[in-house]
């Protein structure tokens, strides 16, 4: 049996069919790279070689300047109703010194800002105001976001003022801070910015995502209303993303009505379904209803939403049945990824599908699925196939693929298998003479195996 494992990923697909750019590149650059960097915690200064660095530069979808910092953290932090806090027992004097010292790393200065905001004393707030006047944009944004978790009575007024700052990075940080604050004034300013046609797409997108993390009915109402009036597709995707973070019981009608409209593009239709991957497991039957859609891009979006879902429920039979009759490789890729989230997947059911898989990305995903079976039973038919054929294919993907995402996906599969031959290959990769990203990924995979 295959053990359950969580899929860590961010957004759409990989492949190579013309005209599917926003969907078909994403397995690599958006899913595997994002997943691996969360899984591996890669941190290095050396640049990968040119052939691989090029592969991860294209974004998954048209992304606003606001989306990166917001999507990767703010929604989760707002949903918890607080900013993440570091309990390091540094004195206020040490924090002030760190915050003001330009020789300190930006990470250290941001951490100091967060702690000072939480302290909220007059001395701490004066220092934060000083940074907001004279500091670099990146630090201003961190200070602004940190103010959302501050107990100081000055914090809200500072945030409201910063929301209109000419420095857009600081303004976006303020919107994140307002979402964390969660009060009625904060909600009002976020809604007004979302509907401000004179505002930048980046700032309005930030407001949409921030509203997605707020549980007040007014936040949901603003996002639902935005579906009816906003036409910019990049901004709409962020509105849908924010809406997807609300409980599906509260959003089903809005999603259904929007998908039934005849004036939305296929791209937005896919983004709508993908957004449901953020919501509760109540959305699973709704998502599965698109398994038979005539547009393979929509089917792939449905598969991705199920792979992303935190609680998809027990849908192993539906996924296997769909996978067996799916003729589009980009969709099969997503179904393999969704199956990794399921318990009690029988390796014998998956093996013949992987054996005949002729798409590189889908095959890598299938081998990743089989890797669990290899760990638990290397003497099974699936285990023997993995050892004879899978290891060779994964080694080829690591060393010969022109795409970094495929190489990293192969390393992840080797780590999941954990057999002597897989670990030996990881050891070889960990000594890669030129590629730091591959070396770091392999080393982390080896550490995880040792810990298990």
The geometry reads as: globular
DSSP helical segment count: 26
| Total strand segments | 0
Compute the separation of the termini in Å. Answer: 18 Å
Estimate the strand proportion.
under 5%
Helix content: 55-70%
CATH top-level class of the domain at 65-246: Mainly Alpha
Instruction: Using the CA coordinates, give the radius of gyration.
Output: 23 Å
According to CATH, the homologous superfamily of the domain at 65-246 is Leucine-rich Repeat Variant
* Order of H and E elements: HHHHHHHHHHHHHHHHHHHHHHHHHH
Largest sheet: none
CATH architecture of the domain at 65-246: Alpha Horseshoe
What would the CATH topology of the domain at 65-246 be? Leucine-rich Repeat Variant
Low-confidence stretches: 1-88
